[in-house]
Specification:
GO terms for molecular function: DNA-binding transcription factor activity; sequence-specific DNA binding. Belongs to the LysR transcriptional regulatory family. This is DNA-binding transcriptional regulator, LysR family. By secondary structure, the chain is of the alpha/beta class. It is about 40% helix and about 25% strand. Helix 5 links the parallel strand 3 and strand 4. The termini are far apart.
C-alpha cells in the first residue's frame, strides 16, 4: 500500500513562517490579514497533515520543536525561491521608484546618510526612502529590510550579497572642561555608555578593558543621547566621528580607539531590481567619497 504523502501548500508555509517569526497567534494573524482562530485552526490542520507537532506553546509564545525547526529551514528556502521567481520577472531597466528600506545603526543613518539624501532624491525623485535604525540585525530573508549597512562582517548566507564598503572611526570625546585630560586619567573619570545589552560591541569591550572599574553616569541605547549627555558634561564618551562632528565637544584621543568595518548587504533575490541596485551603488559610492569623514581623519 502506498504511503500517504502530506499535502502542504504555500498558504500553510506562509502561515507557519508567520507563527515562527511572531511567536504569537494574534500578531501572526495580523501579519496574514486573518483572525486568530483561523491561524489556530490552520496550524492544527497543518500539524495533523504532517503527523507531528511543529510548535510548543510556552509562556513567551510558540516555540518550534525539532521537527518544526527542520520544516522551517526548508520553508525559508522555499520562500526565498518564490521571492526570486517573482522578482526575476521584473525588468532590470524598470524605473527607479517606490520604497527602499535601509537598516543600520542610528548614527550612520541620522548623522551621515540623512544629510546626503537630498542628492539621491534629486537624481531619483520618485524614490521613497525608509530608514530603520536598529542595533539588531533585521532579516533579509523575512523581507524586513531591502538594504543594510552593518558594522561587522556578517556570517555567510547564500541568500545575501555582501561587500565591505568602508570603515567607521570611534574616538574618545568630552565636553570642553575635559580638555587636556590624558589617557592615564580616563579610567578615573565618569563615562556615558551604551546599555548592557550592547556590551558585546567592540568599543564597549575596549572601554571595559581600559577601565575595569568603569564609573558610568548615564547608559542608553541611543548614540544621539550619548552625544548630548557628553556635551552636557556628564562624562567622557566613545563616539563615532560623524556623531560628534557638529557637537560642542573636544576630541581627547589622538587616533581612533576602534574602527568598525562597514558592510553593505542586499538580498540576492532582489539585487537586479533597479531601485535596489541604484541605491546600493549610490551608498557604496558615497561611503567611498566620505572615507576620511567617516573615520574622523
Amino acid at each position: 500500500m502506498a504511503k500517504r504523502v502530506a499535502r502542504i501548500d504555500w498558504n500553510d508555509i506562509s502561515l507557519l513562517l508567520a507563527v515562527a517569526r511572531d511567536r504569537q497567534l494574534r500578531t501572526a494573524a495580523l501579519r496574514l490579514g486573518v483572525d486568530t482562530s483561523t491561524v489556530s485552526r490552520r496550524l492544527a490542520a497543518a500539524e495533523e497533515r504532517l503527523g507531528t507537532r511543529l510548535f510548543l506553546r510556552k509562556p513567551d509564545g510558540y516555540v518550534p520543536t525539532q521537527a518544526g525547526h527542520m520544516f522551517l529551514e526548508s520553508a525559508q528556502t522555499i520562500e526565498g525561491q518564490v521571492l526570486s521567481i517573482f522578482n526575476a520577472t521584473r525588468s532590470a531597466s524598470e524605473e527607479v521608484q517606490g520604497p527602499v528600506r535601509i537598516t543600520s545603526v542610528d548614527t550612520l543613518l541620522g548623522d551621515w546618510l540623512v544629510p546626503r539624501l537630498p542628492e539621491l532624491l534629486a537624481l531619483h525623485p520618485k524614490l521613497e526612502i525608509r530608514l530603520l535604525p536598529e542595533h539588531k540585525n533585521l532579516s533579509f530573508t523575512h523581507s524586513e529590510s531591502d538594504l543594510a549597512l552593518r558594522l561587522a562582517r556578517p556570517e555567510q548566507d547564500a541568500a545575501l550579497l555582501m561587500r565591505r564598503v568602508g570603515s567607521f572611526g570611534i574616538w574618545v570625546y568630552g565636553a570642553p572642561q575635559f580638555r587636556g585630560v590624558t589617557p592615564a586619567q580616563w579610567p578615573e573619570l565618569p563615562w556615558i555608555t551604551y546599555e548592557d545589552d550592547l556590551a558585546d560591541l567592540p568599543q564597549m569591550r575596549w572601554l571595559h578593558a581600559m577601565a575595569p572599574k568603569l564609573r558610568c553616569h548615564l547608559r542608553t541605547s541611543a548614540t544621539a543621547i550619548i552625544t548630548r549627555a557628553c556635551e552636557a558634561g556628564l562624562g567622557l564618551a566613545l563616539l563615532p566621528a560623524i556623531a560628534a562632528r557638529d557637537a560642542k565637544l573636544v576630541r581627547l584621543s589622538d587616533a581612533p580607539v576602534h574602527q568598525r568595518e562597514i558592510w553593505l548587504l542586499k538580498h540576492r533575490a532582489t539585487a537586479r531590481i533597479a531601485k535596489f541596485r541604484v541605491v546600493a551603488d549610490w551608498l557604496a559610492e558615497c561611503i567611498a567619497q566620505d572615507e576620511k569623514l567617516l573615520l574622523g581623519l
